[in-house]
Amino acid sequence: MFISKSFIPILKNNPTEAKIKSHQLMLRVGMIKQSSAGIYSWLPLGFKVMKKIERVVREEQDRIGVQEILMPTIQSSEIWKESGRYKDYGEELLRIKDRQGREILYGPTNEELITDIFRSSIKSYKTLPQLLYHIQWKFRDELRPRFGIMRCREFYMKDAYSFDINDEEAFFSYNKFFLSYLKTFKRLELSAIPMAADTGPIGGNLSHEFIILAETGESKIYTDKRIFDLKYDDEVLEKNSLKKLREKYEKFYAVTDEKFDQKEFDKNVSKENRLSTKGIEVGHIFYFGDKYSKPMNAAVDHQGKKEYVKMGSYGIGVSRLVGAIIEAKYNDKEEIMKWPISVSPYDIAIIPLINKNDSTNLDKAVSICKALNEKNLDVIIDDTEENFSSKLKKFNLIGIPYQILLGKKSEGDLLEFKEIGKESQNLSVKQIIDLVTKIKNKI
Amino acid sequence: MFISKSFIPILKNNPTEAKIKSHQLMLRVGMIKQSSAGIYSWLPLGFKVMKKIERVVREEQDRIGVQEILMPTIQSSEIWKESGRYKDYGEELLRIKDRQGREILYGPTNEELITDIFRSSIKSYKTLPQLLYHIQWKFRDELRPRFGIMRCREFYMKDAYSFDINDEEAFFSYNKFFLSYLKTFKRLELSAIPMAADTGPIGGNLSHEFIILAETGESKIYTDKRIFDLKYDDEVLEKNSLKKLREKYEKFYAVTDEKFDQKEFDKNVSKENRLSTKGIEVGHIFYFGDKYSKPMNAAVDHQGKKEYVKMGSYGIGVSRLVGAIIEAKYNDKEEIMKWPISVSPYDIAIIPLINKNDSTNLDKAVSICKALNEKNLDVIIDDTEENFSSKLKKFNLIGIPYQILLGKKSEGDLLEFKEIGKESQNLSVKQIIDLVTKIKNKI
User: Fold this and answer.
1) B72, A37: Cβ pair inside 8 Å?
2) Angstroms from A261 CA to nearest CA on chain B
3) Superfamily of domain B21-329 in the CATH hierarchy
4) For residue A147, which of B19, B135, B200, B403 sits 20 to 30 Å off, Cα-Cα?
């Protein structure tokens, strides 16, 4: 792909309306375009990153046996009246009247709708547990949308729901997601820590927010530093092992603002381990028992008795993660971004110095590109006649982690290969293919 | 995957509320569930088919060099006022007021929004043509939603947009989509014929609907039969060759209702070739010049002159195609469905006869499944204890094209392998893998 043919509208300077670095960078390199307050279009560069994040999220859901479905964005108000949330939810719920005057709404979350699907399909406890997820657009009518796609109105979210026969099984489901979320964020090269959290409008009494540290975050957190050193690679999808995993994390004090208690903090965390800082919420899991199943009559037959199913819900902000990764990886002082290879818009950028009337380097770039494409590496070539240093500056912002530089020095079969943030080295095309393929296969 | 663990709520009988066979089948085998009037949730079986259709559509867009983006579902009314359609569009446009009292809407189509994106990013004719597409949910507030997902309110659509400097280039873009659509529908095993059509609320003066024949279709068409025999495999993405391709089709009279003229029909089509029947619209392409670019001021600088860009738009109903394929492939008399392998929810169904306290056949099914999974074949096992004939009946409805039957006869290494609609044959696991893989690779 040539950059001259791509729809990547790059700005010369940081847009003044953007207050945090992810918003700045996304506008700067043309990943998104605002269409109205808190509502964005995703241009090719941003779209590619979001789709790759979606793929990682999907794979990790599939891995723990959650089945994918797709619920609509527009919901009837009837089921929200059944659960009682139509009244309670407040003004963030976008309420709509259709042409027949019926009250409908744009779903900000799907507890009611999934409960409705469950109750009309599942009658016996034998088919439990049921774990279902979907990845769909949601709408919350934020009073003050801000920070680009970090706090916007229309956002892309993975939300999963679990249905179990009793608390013990329901905690097993909860803990599966607990592990799955740790793994998902790790694949995105994020250190996201589960923090005991308030349940808010979802309800229930058990909940963890997965938070990544960031000065620009809107969540205030209080934690024992040592929680960052925990390992979990050995955990398997087995009841006891997962229980122990959660206990391992819960041994350390780690809470969000609403759950904070100064006395508890002082008592449980030694002074040198105390950390109170800000973070970005990238995932949130809830256990709320029969909060929805009871009013909506979602029950199964269990040994002759009617039992309301025990439910949990599990969200990951797919579109928000694009911004969260930038907050974590973008050095805005040096203007250098580096995407994790798992979600980078391209694997490799080829940056040739191109002089007027001399196509040597461009031809070379094209032939290297072909070789890389054949090995399933996704490549973009800067085929413009800009000067070399402004090309480098531009690609340091775009953040593709690997670059092949065809400058004046370029001669023979060895190419100047650079991983962002490291020294460049001279490698053959084959060596580059091997190196990048190996890294891609690991994630 | 075991069917007992899948969320596939199958009905014993045809649902009485469904009037056409695609709606009947989709409810019957639990592909969808209605959530409110004209709004559906996609359960795992339906979701898988829709995602596979989406993949085919995406690959064929990428192949002609269209770049993927993603526009939001909610749009500001401002741009619709600029184009003049806010007043004109009528009651199918779902108009919404947000909490601040601003007029917003759920997009039924995206001409305005894409024009807004274009005008803020592209300034020079040198970066033309620009071809962009997205696959996103749309909403049309149908007065009488009907026929399941065929005429619903919330639907999933691929819409592409082209921007060119003049008519000649714009027709080139139009013809690229013309070819691409023929190919897309062919990969879905549909014989979709381009028919000259009215442009309706999109506007412009050149338009083709891609129609598949179906008695349950809502489009009335008049055509020369011989158009069904046309071939186009040799066509390439070159201006003249594409022009000839379209001319080849346009030589035959083929129009939708609004374009029909009895005299023309009688004059241009000999009696034995006349066909007037019904069909389902699965794609629609439009050329409308500067209808949007002029009022919205989307222009490029061309040799010192300001030129309004010439635009077209190109839609494929992704969710509707699920129903359209069923209408084309489902024999509702015999209750036998057969999905094209390109979009089948699974590649192979393993159907073992399972007697109480005898797990021989189930164990065998599991070991065959593993061997097939290793070769990237997607398999579902019927692990229930239903009797064999009701299992066969169920799987003939689900429509996975290939079945492995482990009945009483099952002995030794040769398995009873059946392609729906054909005689069964005895094959080894390896032969089955080779056969199905070969067919999958062809499409």
Assistant:
1) no
2) 35
3) Bira Bifunctional Protein; Domain 2 (3.30.930.10)
4) B135
pTM: 0.97
- What span, in angstroms and rounded, lies between the C-alpha atoms of A22 and A325? 8
Q: Which bin fits A65, alpha (ψ -120 to 50), beta or left (φ > 0)?
A: left
* The pLDDT of residue B409: 63
Determine, for residues A120 and B33 on separate chains, whether the beta-carbon distance falls below 8 Å: yes
Residue B54 banded pLDDT, cuts 50, 70, 90: very high
- Which chain B residue shows the shortest CA-CA distance from A79? B35
Number of inter-chain CB pairs under 8 A, A vs B: 146
A74/B154 Cβ within 8 A: yes
pLDDT at A235 over 90: no
pLDDT digits over A283-318, tens only? 999 999 999 999 999 999 998 999 999 999 999 999
Q: In this complex, which of A41, A50, A132 lies closest to B71 when CB atoms are compared?
A: A41
Distance from CA of B418 to the nearest CA of A (A): 28
User: Contact A41/B70, CB-based, under 8 Å?
Assistant: yes
- CA-based nearest residue in chain B for residue A103: B36
CB A71 within 8 A of CB B102: no
**pLDDT tens digits along B88-97:** 999 999 999 9
A179, A154 in Cβ contact below 8 A? no
CATH superfamily, domain B346-442, is Anticodon-binding domain (3.40.50.800)
pLDDT digits (tens, 9 = 90+) for B129-173: 999 999 999 999 999 999 999 999 999 999 999 999 999 999 999
**What are A2-14's pLDDT values in tens digits?**
999 999 999 999 9
Residues of chain B with CATH 3.30.930.10: 21-329
Q: What are the phi and psi torsion angles at A118 (to 5°)? A: -60, -50
Query: What CA–CA distance (Å, rounded) separates A206 from A289?
Result: 10
Cβ neighbours of residue A213 closer than 8 Å, sequence gap 6 or more:
A191, A277, A278, A279
Q: Which of B78, B106, B117 lies at the smallest CB-CB distance from A41?
A: B117
Query: pLDDT tens across B226-241, in order?
Result: 999 998 876 789 999 9
Substitution target in A36, A48, A114, A296 with the highest count of B β-carbons within 10 Å is A36
pLDDT in tens, A140-190: 999 999 999 999 999 999 999 999 999 999 999 999 999 999 999 999 999
In Å, how far from its chain's centre is CA A319?
Answer: 6
Quick one: closest CA in A to B113, which residue?
Answer: A35
Are A78 and B36 an interchain contact pair (Cβ–Cβ within 8 Å)? yes
Minimum distance, in Å, between the CA of residue A436 and any CA atom of chain B: 24
- pLDDT tens per residue across span A237-290: 999 999 999 999 999 999 999 999 999 999 999 999 999 999 999 999 999 999
Which among A5, A116, A139 has CB closest to B74?
A: A139
Distances, alpha carbon B308 to alpha carbons A9, A324, B298, B302, in Å:
19, 39, 6, 10
Identity of the amino acid at B220: K
Instruction: Find which of A121-130, A196-205, B334-343 is predicted with most confidence, using mean pLDDT.
Output: B334-343
CATH 3.40.50.800 spans which residues of chain A?
346-442
Q: What's the gap in Å between the CA of A412 and the closest CA on chain B? A: 33
Could B70 and A91 be called an inter-chain contact, meaning their C-beta atoms sit closer than 8 Å? no
Segment B340-365 mean pLDDT: 95
| B277-287 average pLDDT score | 96
| Residue B397 CB neighbour total at 10 angstroms | 18
Please tell me the distance in Å from A5's CA to the nearest CA on chain B.
7
User: Is B137 in Cβ contact with A72 (below 8 Å)?
Assistant: yes
Cα distances from A109 to residues A38, A201, A386, in angstroms, run 18, 10, 47
Distance CA B342, CA B188 (A): 7
What the block records as the tokens of A179 is 């592990």
